[in-house]
Amino acid sequence: MEQFNLTATGYNLNYLPEYIAHRHGFFREQGLEVTVNIPIPWDGVLDRLAEGTADMALGGIWVPSMYRDRVQNYTVFAQIANRSPLALLRRGHQEGFKVADMAGSTVLMKSGGGASVGLFFKMLLRENGVDPRSLDYIQDLDGLMLGNLFQGGMGDYFITDNLSARAMAARNSDVSVVLEMVSEGDVPWSVYYRETATITPKILDAQKRFCIALNKGIDWVLQHDAESFRDELAELFPTVPVDVTIGVTNNFRRNGMWTSTSVPRNGFDRWQLGLADARLVKEPLAYEAVVNDGPAAAAKQTVGSTE
Hints:
Blueprint: E1 2-8, H1 16-23, H2 26-29, E2 32-37, H3 44-51, E3 56-59, H4 62-67, E4 74-81, E5 86-91, E6 106-109, H5 116-127, E7 136-138, H6 143-152, E8 157-161, H7 162-171, E9 175-180, E10 190-195, H8 201-223, H9 230-236, H10 242-254, H11 265-277, H12 287-290, H13 294-306
Parallel strand pairs: 1-2, 1-3, 6-7, 6-8
Antiparallel strand pairs: 3-10, 4-10, 5-8, 5-9
Protein name: 4-amino-5-hydroxymethyl-2-methylpyrimidine phosphate synthase
Cofactor: Fe cation
Domain SsuA/THI5-like: 12-227
């Protein structure tokens, strides 16, 4: 069994197919003993890669994009989350909400796990014809703290992960989810990557086998209504009411959160434009500059040839 160590920026529902692949033995079927480390703070994933204690990192593609040709070059070899897992809450009811009407409001959004929340939301504003500078933001605080402050009266809107948003709305009738961003188009939200200079033929083979197992996890989740694995979801996310987890999981299943391990070019190009608008990159990067689809493509061919 080959050790293949993963360092991840967090523990999230949008990583569900990976958890399923691990629990159901799909990685072991490919000869991989996958271990997971979640450093605090999250950017410790880059330290794990640099010191060689991790074979891959899981997180936002904005990091390899931002670092390229500045600090360190990383190559993305697979994707797990194809959509944004965020949700927008406001006090009161959800009827009549439009993104285009948000100008002049104050938005609370957590940022402890990186820049993705603000990057995606401000890109969404621009796509809806709203200048992000027309809103005020409170985002340099812990997510739990911001959630409590929002429920106590601070700001007009609160952005957090979809699971936390639905859980908040379920226990607090004074707030409602007005937008689940999984419905807002493709974007390579969560990807696997490692330092470009350390990639060898042996690593590429392990990445291919990892993709085979992860694709099997994705397919398993897509083929099973979340209600049918209620107990498993309760074990994976014990702090959230299981009915909420089931609802969000099925919403993700319906709306393209999980597709395949390949990073889609259209979603990549869209995200690069958002990163350029946010000044994280000077100009949108080419797909091949950041992504090597070889392992994911080879995984698909391997599975196809055995069916």
